[in-house]
């Protein structure tokens, strides 16, 4: 479903609709979530969630190379690994797929960044609907949603009640806070209106 672009060698573009997005470059270390900002804004708007939240999560999840070949090799070594630019596990993908009647398979996340971003935005929107409106004030709503993305719905609810996050969740939260400014800059650079950034 991709075609070789007439532009930069090693760059492919998604065909078939509104998503015209670069796939991760052949140099795995060069992956940058900012490459997908326009697609992300569109996907977040369709899902009804904050582009800033989605892009910040993508920045946090960029800790490993995102390249289809590397992900295939990693899955061979570790079959339960997460896939795609948003690092989604199979069980989470299947829940989102069923809830939203999505086409495609979990394996498509590694080859189709636009699809991976759309699924991540839908998952964050689902978490937002589940998260109670009133919650402990030590964490913002977006921080709770990011922790839900990382640690799961049950843990997100516990954190919302005031249960302190454990070491891994605290580490994720630190990275989320550290990347938020960068994500906001990227969205501003691509001309996203201020009120559209936060959803």
> Could you give the order of the helices and strands?
EEHHHHHHHHHH
Alpha-carbon distance between the termini?
Answer: 30 Å
What is the tally of beta strands?
A: 2
**Low-confidence residue ranges:** 1-19
Oligomer: single chain
Mind summarizing the main beta sheet? 2 strands, antiparallel
Mean pLDDT equals 83
CA-based gyration radius: 16 Å
Helix percent band: 55-70%
Strand content: under 5%
Q: What is the strand arrangement across the widest sheet?
A: 1-2
Shape: globular
Tally of alpha and pi helices: 10
Structural class: mainly alpha
Structural account:
This protein is mostly helical and 199 residues long. It has ten helices and two strands. It has a two-stranded antiparallel ribbon with strand order 1-2. A hairpin with a 7-residue loop joins strand 1 (2-4) and strand 2 (12-14). The longest helix is centred in the C-terminal third of the chain and has 23 residues, at 167-189. The chain is globular, with a radius of gyration of 16 Å. The model is unreliable at 1-19 (pLDDT under 50).
């Amino acid at each position: 479903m991709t075609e070789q672009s007439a532009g930069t060698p090693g760059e492919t573009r998604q065909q078939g609709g509104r998503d015209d997005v670069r796939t991760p470059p052949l140099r795995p270390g060069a992956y940058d979530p900012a490459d997908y900002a326009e697609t992300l804004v569109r996907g977040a708007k369709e899902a009804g969630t904050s582009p800033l939240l989605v892009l910040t999560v993508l920045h946090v999840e960029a800790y490993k190379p995102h390249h289809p070949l590397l992900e295939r090799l990693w899955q061979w070594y570790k079959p339960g690994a997460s896939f795609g630019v948003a690092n989604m596990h199979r069980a989470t993908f299947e829940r989102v797929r069923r809830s939203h009647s999505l086409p495609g398979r979990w394996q498509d996340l590694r080859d189709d960044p636009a699809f991976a971003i759309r699924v991540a935005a839908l998952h964050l929107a689902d978490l937002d609907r589940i998260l109670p409106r009133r919650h402990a004030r030590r964490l913002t709503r977006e921080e709770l949603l990011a922790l839900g993305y990382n640690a799961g719905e049950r843990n997100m609810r516990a954190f919302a009640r005031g249960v302190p996050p454990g070491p891994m969740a605290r580490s994720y939260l630190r990275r989320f806070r550290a990347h938020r400014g960068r994500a906001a800059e990227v969205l501003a650079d691509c001309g996203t209106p201020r009120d559209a950034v936060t959803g």
